[in-house]
From TrEMBL, chains A, B, C, D, E, F:
This is 3'-5' exoribonuclease. GO terms for biological process: rRNA 3'-end processing. It comes from Pontibacillus marinus BH030004 = DSM 16465. One of its GO terms (molecular function) is nucleic acid binding. SMART domains: HDc (SM00471). InterPro entries: HD/PDEase_dom, HD_domain, NA-bd_OB-fold, NA-bd_OB_tRNA, YhaM_exoribonuc/phosphodiest. The keyword Ribonucleoprotein does not apply. It comes from the Bacteria. Residues 163-279 form the HD domain. Keywords: Exonuclease, Hydrolase, Nuclease.
């Protein structure tokens, strides 16, 4: 989506459909009402002001609606702003749909579920395999559509499954380098580690935190669920405790939300693999948006650093 | 137990029974074997060396056994040490029992269970009442014997119930001062907040951490249990989430083991009441051991402070 | 004051008197001058813009004046703003007074001074009693009108005395639970702990920090005063040092302004009681403003947390 | 070396050669001199006391000498101690050599240099390739014998090269998962990142810190060396700065010794790969020493954690 | 420059030349374009809006140009803003020059170079003297014009040399009080400590960070340069390492950018002298702008403190 | 005192008088009592064991007594220990005195009081001068004998006055470099900043903390004293507040014991001068004990650093 709103430069004209993410009424210094719109498509977001808004405008241009807009990308207080020249609500005949405006994982759902199924099939420990399969079956639909996070990394449709599959691939390669790793336990931990987000977040498209998400959080919620599923399947023994520990400790430190730090090898690895994949996802997407010789925007979740793209990068790749 | 080992001054003779907490073999600089014994009674602990120990001594004076010892309290590297003059194993005819050597709460079990039952009876919210009653019933025996912690505060037989009952009393008085408090929720949180310790610790008498205790911890274990009990009793609704949140957040901060800080009034109060009662328990017991005009030992769990007992304290009390 | 400005929802019309807290001149993008007014009554504050302000407006609508305003509560950048339709200065005939617009403690001054007097009367230690009585006598008028703080908690007329009386009640109840407490010392510490604020702050109605307040602070100022009063009354002995220590250590830690942490039992309790009462004051007032099922605004002085009010809270109270 | 001193249990007899790491004279409480010996072989270290040592003993049993010892492994203050029954210096006819007593990487030097050479051969960017090759050539001998650190991880003969080769393998696999990585830059960074240790440490066998190592440290020393080599080879352009940045930032944070954090993608990856390989080296070696169901010793460089080895680990591996 | 823009009070008229530091286009709420200008002279900076800007204005009023402006100093959101009444570009006949608008050290360049030369002449250690002289010769021009920093302290033309000369004077006086100081080493360290800034910053007039500055930083860059110069001059021995250490450690702590803390006496002193002179420069300039009895603005680099100027300060000085 | 106990190397014989700092009874593994003696002279301290001590020995060799000892300096657990061959109590005829064994400032008391008097004489502000003179007069005797601290820096007889005089000299020189400094205020602050130590510590010779010292601390005690003296002398105005602020803030930060950070220029300078003189005192004394090319012991109060003495230091000084 190279002609999306996220790729428009200051000064360029714009003429396309956009999804309204939020709409807030204000009063201008001339006393007239206006709307502040946050507009988005799959490539990014932009703010716009609809000056001298009528009562009808207020009811038409609301969150989750789609609008056809012509205008120009300008700048206000150092941030891009879309100057609206004309705006109208989308019609059924326009053939546009909310899902067209949401970013999606670069790998299709079919491939994601196939790789997940394959990983479970490879597991040899029956207790770990049964628990993992049970969860994937129960939550399959949501698992394949939810993002991995509200912002920062894999924050797009199917982001959670995309993140998990990347981590499974990474785990498989680490097993070759460090053969002592218990791959069954690591696979199970990877697949389940963020599954609590399906209850922590309200939905896949425009996720917000649920009450349970705010007061309990996805980690204790998932530890609880594993306990329940183990009882349901009649599974006892260390596998249950180890799997709960993997989920519980995967943030690495108490101050990052894990009341216990990793205390088994595979838990430590789960934490490291999660870190590597989340960081690479953030870095690659930020660097994709800049040219060699430029710095990216500051990345909040990477200590607010701004990364440089060297001039010579991969110039010798064929 | 004013003539217990914890109250002997350096230089005083000793002649009494003591419980062996641990026994370790060593070799002296003259090449002869000796035993390092940690000995205890309900008043405290002391180290002793049994020089030139025979093979028989090694098998007789082992952990959990009771011995009759005469000797003198001396000092080694600044810490008290019992110099053994004679030692023999206790006989059945001595009429001593392991429980005589363990510290116990200053309130009898009967009073503790009565107050607990009363508090549950006072609750008006049926969901909270049912869950709380269920837990107390299920765990009653252990609840009334376990300590509240391995060290620092209420680290004695029935310490957990003693701590809970103190907190219930404190809660009742706070309700009078701040009538908006939901006393049912606060009572339920107080009664259940540390119940996970029954599984985190191995037993009441000489508690150590279980594997599950080390890898999961009492807080997530209890959140999981509340989830299970609610399902078992068919209870749904906010009470379950709020009760899980109370337990989850009662350490106050992520770095202290609570992945969520208190986010409802009663959770904040639970945290504060827990703090007040634990601190008063530590302070009172440490100050009991010193005279007016003296400082206590350093209290590790109170930022390693050493507290002063003023000369005039309560001198005007009748 | 349920129809006060603090309780108006976005979109509601407003027609009432407000106290001008501050007035600042600006220039609009059309080149015309305007005034930014911060307006308040006992229920809260709101910002308003007076567009196209005349020279006369500039001199009429200044801080500490009262104005009659009609308008509508709108929103600007996510915060409420009062859209002014008409404005006029209050007239003597309007019968409004500055004190009508200031929040006041929910307990009348007479009750506060009565409880204070009673507590001093209960004290048995003559040295502590004489010093405490001397201070209360000397500062009585200011003590009964000053707030306990500029913001966060008990930040209203008589807030300091209200806070102190709450703490005295709490202390009395704790004495019942933990009878070793020296109630005289604790009472004296509670009554004097924040008295330095009478010199740290410039006044009761619209308090700001004095030069001495900024450069010395209320804690060392009060330690100094206790030293002076003891000399004046000819009191010597540990009571003076202990009382200075109570005041000095009541913030609990060096980084919170107490060069010594609490080192006697009553100092530790003073710190805890202060914490409990301040937090309950903040929490109760924030929760009063929201409905069950809602979250409060973020509370800066409580680690910026936003608290939830459960749906079922106290529904079973009669 | 399964019968080495590092694998002896308390109470087992010992009869073998050991390298003397240090020897210190003391005076026993009976007034007689004794020697405290730290003894080692490739499997570990142990302390021993040689009581009633003669003047000759003092001169015979000194650091870097080898001794034949019979005795028994006992325990002193909770740590193993070798109780010496007989001791004699090793003779030429014993056929033992200092290198027999030093731990060595599990991969032979020939394989390490082969993989290093191969990685350099794979590089396509001529500037990075020339600088890297120049360093490996210049320092080849030391590179293949030095440890990667004085303690914690890869602290054995050839440890540096072993660590680097593991990291190169990891890098190659990450390139497959995240194809945007500039593998040349990452390879160059991996090979050079710790090369400054060759000057920071005094030698391969019993390394200590050099004066330059203590006052400058391996990171700034290597940044300086890269600057010098670039000048010498007539190489200019961003490759030099990027390579210096890779080395400079590889500890990740200022407080860990990197004045700049990683600011290019490959620098971030270098930091992560270094972390993963160092942690896996520590974890695998610590877990190798314990049985399933046991915890390892505390690992200082991993936040002092003690790791658990699950009972079921890899039991399903064929 | 007492009539400079930095000394205008709110409400005062302005009529003078100003240098345009930056110019950004925006669109007003009436849909018309405007320019936001940051204007400066040697006394300070101010923001201004040029409403209804033409295309020609956009090209005329750009960064680094000088404009003649009449207007009035007003206030917007609590910060001064220049309300433009008329504006025209400066003409050659106006006789104004960019350098007229830049702040400069209060000591002329000639005096600075003289003191520098004198200090080098006083040095007795030939190795330190030769290295120091070489650097001063090589970089003399830039050394005498660069600021010591982009902001906070000595952030003006010749600021670096001014800072260095102040520090040399301070060092000379400390040598009298503490005669063990090695003055040669301290002088050399002072002169070279910030010289890396000549490459870290892009220029003297409107400095920004270079790529090497961002990715390597002035400290490692200078350690590298000293290494190169020592090789070039054929100097070996501890003087080189000590000088590198002085530069490396002068920020005092790892988290402030020094991978090694000061480990020789003169390095510790260099750090302290740097601190004292930077702080005095900030403090004196801030206090110069306020009257006795007032507080300065908050000083970001001094922990955001606002300093008070006592009423009686130096009133007794003749 | 070059042949003092602090300068003896391991293995050297010793034959001289030593002051007993402490004496503790223990029981050896052979069941016989022994004494652990801490012995000192003006050059340092050493531990010694008096084996098989008689009852008489116990009463003879007690703290504050002097003994004549012959023996040998050996080593135990890495620390020097004096092996006693013979010991006898000092006799009146030995002509030794306790003061011979205490370290003293390198400047005589007469010079210290002269410089103090001179500084007060130079002051022009009558209020500051009167208060300062009053304090010096009141406390002159103790001021000239007390140490500046119990350990770390200036921890010797007259250490406090020596520290203050050094700081006065430093202040005078800084005034030349930064003429805006108010020297009167700075002088007064320097002279009074640590005077509270006269009440915080129990005495000059073997200082320990008083009860008031432990519970209030020298900083608030001195703020209180200044308040009292100002009242006594009838002095009002900012000088009193500023002087209290100087003392209050001289530790620089809340976590270092200053509830307010420095908020006037002279307070900031007082903090810096205190830092410089304390550090130079520690550094110079530690470096005096080592040869060029060696590192000092770790200095606890300087972040536990060990400092290097370069080989070439001051070799060119004549």
């Amino acid at each position: 989506m190279k002609n999306g709103i996220g790729h428009h430069a200051i000064g360029e004209p714009f003429d396309n459909f956009l999804l309204i993410k939020s709409s807030t009424k204000g009063v201008a210094s001339n006393g007239k009402p206006f709307l502040t719109l946050i507009l988005k498509d799959a490539s990014g977001e932009i703010e716009a002001k609809l000056w001298e808004a009528t009562k009808e405008d207020e009811h038409t241009f609301v969150a989750e609606e789609i609008a056809k807009i012509t205008g120009e990308v300008s700048q206000y207080r150092g941030r891009p702003q879309l100057k609206i020249q004309s705006i109208r609500p989308a019609q059924p005949t326009d053939g546009v749909d909310q899902s067209d405006f949401l970013e999606t994982a670069p790998v299709p759902k079919e491939d994601l579920i196939e790789r997940l199924t394959e990983a479970i099939f490879e597991m040899k420990n029956p207790n770990l395999q049964r628990m993992t399969r049970h969860f994937v079956k129960t939550y399959q639909e949501a698992f394949l559509t939810y993002p991995a996070a509200v912002k920062n990394h894999h924050e797009y449709i199917s982001g959670l499954a995309h993140h998990v599959v990347s981590m499974l691939n990474l785990a498989k390669q680490l097993k070759e380098l460090y053969p002592d790793i218990d791959l069954d336990l690591l696979y199970a931990g990877i697949i389940l580690h963020d599954l609590g987000k399906l209850k922590e977040l309200s939905g896949a498209a425009t996720p917000s935190y649920t009450l349970e998400g705010k007061l309990i959080g996805h980690i204790p919620m998932m530890v609880d669920e594993i306990g329940g599923v183990a009882k349901e399947l009649g599974i006892e023994g260390e596998e249950v405790t180890m799997l709960q520990h993997m989920v519980l400790s995967h943030h690495g430190k108490a101050e990052w939300g894990s009341p216990k730090p990793p205390l088994i090898r595979e838990a430590e690895l789960l934490h490291l693999i999660d870190l590597v994949d989340a960081k690479m996802n953030m870095l690659n997407r930020a660097l994709d948006k800049v040219q060699p010789g430029e710095f990216t925007d500051r990345l909040f979740a990477m200590d607010n650093r701004s990364f440089y793209k060297p001039l010579f990068t991969n110039e010798h790749d064929e």
